[in-house]
Design a protein that fits this description.
single chain, 492 residues, alpha/beta, Rossmann fold, 2 domains, 6-stranded parallel β-sheet, 17 helices
C-alpha cells in the first residue's frame, strides 16, 4: 500500500509534542510491514536540520493557487532517520514557516491552510496518487475538504483520507478568508452546520470539524479518549459532530519506540537492565541520586514527574505530589517546562524553596538525556492529567519498571490497570495505580498505596514492576490497527 502522511510535525526533525513521535513511529512501523510511506511537512526555519540526511530539491517550481493568484514554492526531499520526507518551502512575503517557532503565531490558521493546499497541490502536480492520505490534527483538517471539493475533479478521485485527532482542544477556528485563499470560495455552502461552520459560533469556521466531516475515517489516539470525546466533554464542542459521524470514528492507542525507550538498549543510562536483572535498575537509581545530588538512602523510594507543566497535565496535583511524597518519606524528582508564565514562576518559587532539600530536585526545562535516567532510576511516576488523549510517559514508565500512578482518563485508563481494584484484569495483569477525582485526597490515596507497597511489601512491589515491564506498547499492535482502517476505507 502507498501511504502519504501530511502533518505539521515529525520527530525528531520537527517536534513540539507527541504528534511528532506518532508520525515518525507509525511511519516506520508501516514500512517495516512492507508498505511505502512518504511524509509531507512544512519547511520551518527552526527545525532540526541536523536530523535530515541528503536534503535536496525535489520539485523546484510548485505554484500553489492562493487568493486568485499563486505562491511559488520549492519542495525539498530528505531522509529523517530512514523516513522519506518532503518539505514545502513557500517563497512569499507572508513568510509562513520562517517565524522561529512551529506554532503560536496570530495567523496560524492561514499558515496551515496554506500548507494543506500546498501539500495536496504537490501530490497533484507530481502525479503522486497514494492509496491513503493520513492527516493529523487541525493543521491538516482542510486536506480532505480540498480533496473532495476541488481535487477529485482534477484526477484525485480515488484517494482515501484517514484523519487522526491528537488533541481536541485546538481546533483551528478561522474565518471566511480561508475559503477565498484556498479557492473553496462558496461562503454560504461552507458556513452550513453540516460542513465547516463551528458548532457554537455561526460566524466562524472550524478546520477540525472540516476534517471530521469530509474524511473517510476519523480516529483519536486511544479507545477511552474516543469514548470521552463522543460522550463526554473531551470533544470540546465537537461531540455532536462525532455523534453524527460515529459510524466512521474509533480510537487507536499510540505506541512508543522501543529502539529509543527501552532499558535493555538505552544508550543514555549507565546500566542497562531487563526484568530479570532489576538489581541494575537499582544501580541507575544510585546514579540518578549522584547526578541530582539527592540523599542516598535505601529506605526512600524515588517518585518522579516528567512532562509539561500545564493545566492539561493537572499541574495542581503535580505540585501537591511533591510535598505529599516528601511528607511520606519519599524523594521527588521533577523534569518539565511550564507553558504559562504564571505556572513557570510558581515552580521556580518551589525550586528555590526546595533547593537545599536532599530529597527533592526540580529540573525546570526539558532535557531528553536526563529524562532517560529519571525513568530508569525512579521507582514510581505520577501522571495526574486533567485529560490525556493517549499519554506516553506512563507507557515508558512501565517499560522501565517505574510504576505509574495515574488519573483514570483517556489513554491512561487503556494502559494502566490498578493493582488493588481493577476488576477487568486478573491480579497477574495489573501494573500500577489509578485514581479518578481531581482533588488532593484521590491522588494521596493512590500514592499512599504505592508507597506502602514499596516500603512494607518489597517482593509484591517487584512483582508489580515485572508485570508492567512485560506489557508490549510498541507500534506493533497500533500498526495492525491502522492497516485495518486503511484497508477498510480503500475498499469503500
Amino acid at each position: 500500500m502507498y501511504i502519504v502522511q501530511i502533518a505539521s510535525e515529525c520527530a525528531p526533525v520537527i517536534k513540539a509534542g507527541g504528534l511528532g513521535d506518532v508520525v515518525y513511529g507509525l511511519s516506520r512501523e508501516l514500512e517495516t510491514r512492507g508498505h511505502t510511506v512518504e511524509i509531507i511537512l512544512p519547511m520551518y526555519d527552526c527545525m532540526r536540520y541536523d536530523h535530515i540526511w541528503g536534503l535536496h530539491d525535489a520539485y523546484r517550481d510548485l505554484w500553489v493557487p492562493w487568493y486568485g493568484g499563486a505562491v511559488h514554492c520549492s519542495v525539498f526531499c530528505g531522509w529523517v532517520h530512514g523516513r522519506l520526507c518532503f518539505f514545502i518551502q513557500p517563497h512569499s512575503s507572508d513568510n509562513f514557516f520562517n517565524r522561529g517557532q512551529y506554532y503560536g503565531a496570530t495567523d496560524d490558521d492561514m499558515r496551515f491552510a496554506f500548507f494543506s493546499k500546498a501539500a495536496i497541490e504537490f501530490l497533484l502536480v507530481s502525479n503522486k496518487r497514494p492509496d491513503v492520505i493520513h492527516c493529523h490534527d487541525w493543521q491538516t483538517g482542510l486536506v480532505p475538504v480540498l480533496l473532495f471539493e476541488i481535487y477529485k475533479w482534477h484526477g484525485m478521485w480515488n484517494q482515501r483520507v484517514l484523519y487522526t485527532i491528537h488533541n481536541f482542544k485546538h481546533q483551528g477556528i478561522t474565518g471566511v478568508n480561508v475559503l477565498w485563499a484556498t479557492g473553496l470560495n462558496n461562503e454560504g455552502y461552507y458556513f452550513d452546520y453540516d460542513r465547516l461552520r463551528d458548532n457554537f459560533n455561526p460566524f466562524a469556521l472550524n478546520l477540525m470539524k472540516g476534517g471530521i466531516v469530509y474524511s473517510n475515517h476519523i480516529n483519536t489516539v486511544s479507545p477511552h479518549h474516543a469514548w470521552e470525546a463522543h460522550h463526554g466533554n473531551e470533544g470540546y464542542g465537537l461531540g455532536h459532530t462525532l455523534y453524527l459521524k460515529q459510524y466512521k470514528f474509533s480510537g487507536i492507542l499510540n505506541g512508543i519506540d522501543y529502539d529509543i525507550w527501552n532499558p535493555e538498549v538505552d544508550r543514555y543510562i549507565p546500566f542497562k537492565y531487563t526484568r530479570e536483572t532489576l538489581e541494575d535498575k537499582a544501580k541507575n537509581k544510585k546514579a540518578l541520586r549522584e547526578r541530582l545530588l539527592l540523599r542516598d538512602d535505601p529506605e526512600k523510594p524515588i517518585i518522579c514527574y516528567i512532562g509539561r507543566l500545564d493545566d492539561q497535565k493537572g499541574v495542581h496535583l503535580v505540585h501537591h505530589a511533591i510535598y505529599y511524597a516528601l511528607g511520606r518519606g519519599a524523594q521527588f524528582v521533577l523534569l518539565g517546562s511550564a507553558t504559562k508564565p504564571g505556572i513557570n514562576s510558581w515552580f521556580w518559587h518551589e525550586k528555590n524553596f526546595l533547593n537545599n532539600n536532599p530529597d527533592a530536585h526540580l529540573e525546570l526545562g526539558f532535557n531528553e538525556e536526563l529524562s532517560h535516567l529519571i525513568y530508569a532510576g525512579a521507582d514510581m511516576i505520577v501522571v495526574p492529567s486533567n485529560f490525556e488523549p493517549c499519554g506516553l510517559t506512563q507507557m515508558i514508565g512501565l517499560k522501565y519498571g517505574t510504576v505509574p500512578i495515574v488519573r483514570g482518563v483517556g489513554g491512561l485508563l487503556d494502559t494502566v490497570f490498578d493493582r488493588d481494584y481493577d476488576e477487568n484484569h486478573p491480579p497477574e495483569e495489573r501494573n500500577g495505580y489509578v485514581f479518578y477525582q481531581t482533588d488532593h485526597h484521590a491522588l494521596e490515596s493512590a500514592m499512599d498505596r504505592a508507597i506502602g507497597l514499596w516500603k512494607y511489601y518489597p517482593e509484591e512491589f517487584e512483582k508489580l514492576v515485572t508485570q508492567g515491564m512485560s506489557y508490549d506498547y510498541s507500534w506493533n499492535h497500533p500498526g495492525k490497527e491502522y492497516l485495518k482502517v486503511y484497508e477498510k476505507i480503500r475498499h469503500k
